[in-house]
Write a structure and sequence with these properties.
The longest helix has 26 residues. Helices cover about 50% and strands about 25% of the residues. α2 runs antiparallel to α3 and α3 runs antiparallel to α4. A hairpin with a 2-residue loop joins β1 and β2. The strands form 2 sheets. The chain has a 4-stranded antiparallel beta sheet with strand order 4-5-3-6, with helices on one face. A two-stranded antiparallel ribbon has the order 1-2. The protein is α+β, with helices and mostly antiparallel strands. The protein has 2 domains: about 90 residues; about 80 residues, ACT domain (Alpha-Beta Plaits, 2-Layer Sandwich), CATH 3.30.70.260. It contains 6 helices and 6 strands.
């Protein structure tokens, strides 16, 4: 298409190959915006939108005859997508897990557990509490996420030392 825009209309004095590139950029921008979704506090699809834009730019470069630039841009994009994903998963992405704590049903017990979870760098995103009044126990099912240096093994060990905690299941 780019070659058609450049060479396809001989004798046409008002040709402007940049018009095609401008339309591709705005069209891909429109498509990319459609891939971006907001889900609560998180935004998804930004990588997809950016990848669409990069691929469109690479296609325009190839169409205009800039083969070396297209190859270099392709290599940079593939390397960035591959390695940045690995870095994100290791250092940035939250690790979501479920924690089930069986404990003595007494005032402040759940507060102690939640406070310790927070001190270890985990966030609690959901709690379900079931009480067994006959046994005097409560089972708290927590949905937790951790970022960065949070270590689940250390947290579990500390939770075991809280008085009244009877059983922990981490999955």
């Amino acid at each position: 298409m780019m070659l058609l825009s450049i060479y396809g209309f001989p004798g046409w004095t008002a040709r402007d190959p940049a018009r095609l590139a401008a339309q591709v950029i705005s069209g891909i921008g429109f498509l990319g915006a459609g891939t971006i979704l907001r889900e609560g506090a998180s935004v998804k699809g930004l990588t997809t939108a950016a990848s669409l834009w990069v691929v469109a730019g690479i296609g325009l470069a190839i169409g205009a005859g800039f083969y070396l630039s297209a190859v270099v841009a392709t290599v940079i994009a593939v390397v960035a997508l591959f390695f940045l994903e690995k870095l994100e998963k290791r250092f940035i992405s939250p690790r979501a897990v479920s924690l089930e704590v069986t404990m003595v049903d007494r005032p402040g017990q759940l507060g102690e557990v939640c406070s310790l979870i927070g001190r270890y760098g985990f966030s609690i995103h959901g709690i379900e509490l079931e009480r067994d009044e006959a046994a005097g126990l409560a089972v708290a099912s927590l949905q937790v996420e951790g970022r960065g240096p949070a270590r689940p093994e250390q947290l579990i060990e500390e939770l075991r030392h809280i008085g009244g905690v009877r059983r922990l299941i981490w999955h």
